[in-house]
Amino acid sequence: MGQWDKLAWKIIKDRKTAPDEYGPKNYAELEAWVRKGISLEDYASPRLLDYFYQTRDPKTFELEPSTFFTPQYRAFLAGVAEYLTRDFGFPVPEWVERPEFFLADYWDPIEDFWAEIGSEMPFEELETRLARCPPEFTRRKVICQSRALIRI
Length: 152
Description:
Elements: H1 3-14, H2 27-35, H3 40-55, H4 71-87, H5 109-116, H6 126-131, H7 135-138
Helix pairs in contact: 2-3
């Protein structure tokens, strides 16, 4: 993790703000937002992170994401729950260990983004990309750096 990432995480952890009541407070509410047509990646997921960072409420991750989400996104959300609860000193929810939250093949959400915009992701060896990812994601075969969870 680079110095700027470390600084960003310190700011997130040190910040004291009043919780924003407008936003999903758990994965069930996240699903409800997406079902209403709110963008998962652009708005709903970041608002869930905002809520957690403001409240430090471990209940945010008590409920597992339903099968409404793709298997890849469920594995990603399990990685988020495991990483953040562990990083903030809360008990890790038991559901994150269930087999359905682990993928058989590697998945990189950034690669999907590049495909959506009709371009190829700049080439980088898998090992290089994995080296920058926390184990809470790599053991699920999700390629995700902790910086993807930074919200300032």
